[in-house]
Amino acid sequence: MGRKEEKEDIKKALKEIMESFNDLIDENRDLRKENKALKSKHYKDRELARLSAELNASDRMIAKGFPISDEENRAIDEWVDEHINAHGGRTRTKIGCSCLFHYEFSPSQLGTFGTIICDMHGDKFQFQSP
Ligand SMILES: [Zn+2]
């Protein structure tokens, strides 16, 4: 192989390397774009979930008059159901007992304790503790 051909081969090899390199740069840029879009979609989903939870909390606050978490709300519903079932139960149209519930909040140095109480039977359930 002569010097001229050798030079041509090297030039050709370099050109191929440069082309691969440019392809990689393009690919990398596309992946970055895609990644950014995915992140922003994920962010939007998370933001929507957060807003929806906030909205639920705010609905409950309006309905009950105090702030309460999803978990606390579920615990209260469960306890109330159990309590009513233990005292006559309920049908679709009426409750078989005359239970009346009220909430009590006791502030302490640690935070607030929240309790639901049946005025009729005196049963209590603490659904919130600091
Ligand atoms: Zn009761």
Explained architecture:
The protein has 130 residues and is α+β, with helices and mostly antiparallel strands. Helix content is 61%, strand content 15%. The protein contains two helices and three strands; from the N terminus they run ααβββ. It is rod-shaped, with a radius of gyration of 33 Å. The structure holds zinc ion. The site of zinc ion (ZN) has 8 residues, from loops. Zinc ion binds next to loops.
Mind sketching the topology for me?
Layout: H1 3-64, H2 70-86, E1 101-107, E2 112-118, E3 124-128
Antiparallel strand pairs: 1-2, 2-3
Bound molecules: zinc ion.
Strand element count: 3
Rg, nearest Å? 33 Å
What class would the helix/strand composition place it in?
alpha+beta
Large-scale geometry? rod-shaped
In short:
This protein is of the alpha+beta class and 130 residues long.
Keywords:
130 residues
